[in-house]
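1st attempt posting a full record on here, be nice pls
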Amino acid sequence: MIFVVSAALFLSIYFSLTLYILPEQYMSNEKLISEPMFEVTISEKEISLGESFNVDIITKNGGDYGDIHILSTAFPNVVEIDETVRITTYDFTQTPVKVIPGDEMIARYSGGLEHIKAKYPSIEATSRPIHPGSTYKMSQIVTPETVGNFSVLIKSVNIPHTSDLSHYPQSGILDHQGEFVQVYSVNVNP
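the predicted structure (as tokens):
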């Protein structure tokens, strides 16, 4: 009988704590914010048709722990990525994925609530999880098939996306997903 009364008293104290005191402590904890950033090196600013250039990217998590780190390189001047862009090296934990026009993609940093159809091809490299200070690299060789200004759109997004610091860049030009990108250009001469 003493055991039953003790257990009932213990359980009532425990449930009182979980309902009234502990939730307030959990709510006061600050959110972890992982902060992606990257540096890009384009080997040439100008090439002749038939020549190639390299895109070397070093990306880093400058913030807290995160679940997923995504680096995206997109090519709005390209119809088919296989003939134009080749990954030469990467050290992301997942194999990079090629996105082709028409593929469904998550949009506007919505975490899967909003979707669009891809308008142009891209390559998405992913690592999971991402620790503070973790660094990843990817290199691509690009051989444009047309004359003119050839653009490469680059961005990085960390998930969970808890603030504007969870994507890089944080402002500027929007891509087809409604997300900010940095634009790098190479002039392709005849």
